[in-house]
Recover the amino acids of this structure.
C-alpha cells in the first residue's frame, strides 16, 4: 500500500483519488509518519437484475403434462 504524507495529499488530492479509482490500489495518508486516513476504491456498481429467469420459481405444474391436450379424433379433424 502506498503511503502519502498529508501535505502531498492536500496538493494532489483529485489526482490521487482518480488513481485509486482507476487502479483499485488503496492509499494510506500519514501525518508525521502516523496513519490518519486510508483511501479505498469504491465498491463495484451493483448490476441490475435481469428479467431473464425472473419467474423461475413462481410457476406450478398442475395435472398431466405428458398426455395430449385433446383426444386423437379431434386431432384427425384438424388435419383435414
Amino acid at each position: 500500500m502506498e503511503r502519502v504524507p498529508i501535505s502531498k495529499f492536500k496538493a494532489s488530492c483529485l489526482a490521487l483519488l482518480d488513481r485509486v479509482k482507476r487502479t483499485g490500489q488503496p492509499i494510506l495518508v500519514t501525518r508525521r509518519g502516523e496513519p490518519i486516513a486510508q483511501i479505498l476504491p469504491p465498491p463495484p456498481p451493483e448490476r441490475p437484475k435481469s428479467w431473464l429467469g425472473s419467474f423461475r420459481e413462481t410457476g406450478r405444474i398442475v395435472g398431466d403434462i405428458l398426455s395430449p391436450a385433446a383426444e386423437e379424433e379431434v386431432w384427425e379433424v384438424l388435419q383435414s
